[in-house]
Write a structure and sequence with these properties.
single chain, four-stranded antiparallel β-sheet, 2 domains, TIM Barrel, 40% helix, alpha/beta, Enolase-like, domain 1, binds magnesium ion
Length: 409
């Protein structure tokens, strides 16, 4: 079997999502996905990856991972995630795993050793339907999608709800059977002070949102607090210690996550778990972070760290350090499907990140199959490989952009 074409696809409405399709001479099509900086990532895939990959056997995944890592540096050592090259390599790696699953007739979880869990617990990230959707605007985390505002409908706007009616939002989630939620009550203050300090009134205002949930629902819902890496250590500690009185489940990316010495100090100073890091969670980063005892839950993003295979290696490393995984997805639907395969196979998977505003909305337009999610749990897809593909209609959308590199006939 050999790869005969590499295609990249985007739709303008969700322009941060980049799909890669790898087409083989046997008619199989492998799907990969990554997120953000689409133009540069797509250029890298066609200029650098395609000339290497076309004509190759897609089943030699490790060989291709190692070869493409040279484009990043010396095999990831010391390099952060989220570079353009790693985004492109991540999408290609997932597509190669999808092809391997299709070629062998097995779902991805089976290739990792089979199901440990029939179903995986989810948590809801309280975003809006349009959160993160725009390609080049650098949309603020407190904004609502302009198209939703213009339409006068803000469907499943969990982003506004987490700030304006947090206890009601928690009640809605509990009614759906969802028993964990992620919110970011302090981001606006970090942006005002550049993370240097938080005023007492700001701290009280952020805490009030968490207290409202606790007062209404007791300990029925786990609270995951997102900091988006916006704070310096003293301010992050001040917030986290105040939150700890309310029984927070985890503190996610509390500071700039390359500062592992500060992160270890943060961890030593709080009660709740430290979750990290979609921002910097490469295999090399986790080796250092786990060794320092600086992180409790591995929340890597497989679309940014090197792909499905790299995520599996990080999962094994987390097991070696006796820590759980909870992979990141506030991005695209193929990554959600891949994360679920990984979590269903791994004995020490804790949570699957989901965004109900995406699942009830645009994710359905994009893929042929999505996982069944009910009563706070997700069931992995059963078809070979990912078990899903891009909707055939996607290629006919007015806002689609497709670029193809192919072997000469
Ligand atoms: Mg996060």
């Amino acid at each position: 079997m050999k790869i005969v074409a590499l295609e990249t696809l985007q739709v303008e409405a969700h322009g941060n999502i980049i799909w890669v399709e790898l087409h083989t001479d046997q008619g199989l099509v492998g799907l990969g996905e990554t997120f953000r900086n689409p133009a540069a990532t797509i250029a890298y895939l066609h200029e650098t990856v395609a000339p290497y990959l076309l004509g190759q056997d897609p089943r030699r995944i490790e060989r291709h991972r190692f070869a493409l890592a040279r484009e990043v540096g010396s095999h990831f050592q010391g390099f952060p995630s989220r570079s353009i090259e790693l985004r492109g390599n991540s999408a290609v790696d997932l597509a190669l795993w999808d092809l391997l699953g299709q070629a062998t007739g097995q779902p991805l979880y089976q290739l990792l050793g089979g199901l440990t869990h029939e179903r995986v617990r989810i948590y809801n990230t309280c975003a809006s339907a349009g959160y993160n959707s725009l390609a080049r605007t650098g949309q603020d985390s407190l904004q609502i999608a302009p198209d939703a505002v213009a339409a006068g409908t803000v469907p499943l706007d969990d982003l506004n709800a987490q700030h304006q009616r947090p206890a009601e939002l928690a009640a809605e989630l509990l009614a759906e059977g969802i028993t964990a939620m992620k919110i970011w009550p302090f981001d606006a203050y970090a942006k005002a002070s550049r993370g240097l300090h938080i005023a007492p009134a700001e701290l009280r205002a952020g805490l009030a949102k968490v207290e409202a949930i606790r007062q209404a629902h007791g300990d029925a819902i786990d609270l995951l607090i997102e900091y988006h890496g916006l704070w310096q250590l003293p301010a992050a500690l001040e917030i986290a210690r105040a939150l700890d009185q309310l029984g927070v489940f985890w503190h996610e990316d509390p500071i700039a996550m390359h500062r592992l010495d500060d992160l270890a100090r943060f961890k030593a100073g709080v009660r709740g778990r430290v979750a990290g890091s979609e921002n910097l969670g490469s295999l090399a980063w986790y080796r250092s972070a786990f060794a320092l005892g600086a992180v409790d839950v591995a929340t890597f993003d497989l679309g940014w760290v090197g792909g499905f295979g790299e995520a599996h290696k990080i999962t094994a490393l987390a097991e070696a350090y006796d820590r759980p995984i909870a992979p990141h997805d506030c991005t695209g639907p193929a990554q959600l499907v891949a994360n679920l395969h990984l979590c269903a196979a791994a004995p020490h998977s804790l949570f699957l990140e989901t965004v109900r505003a995406y699942l009830a909305g645009f994710y359905r337009e994009l893929l042929t199959e999505l996982p069944r999610i009910e009563q706070g749990y997700a069931w992995p897809l059963q078809g070979p490989g990912l078990g899903t593909a891009l909707q055939p209609d996607l290629r006919r959308r007015a806002d689609v952009r497709i670029r193809r590199s192919a072997l000469a006939d």
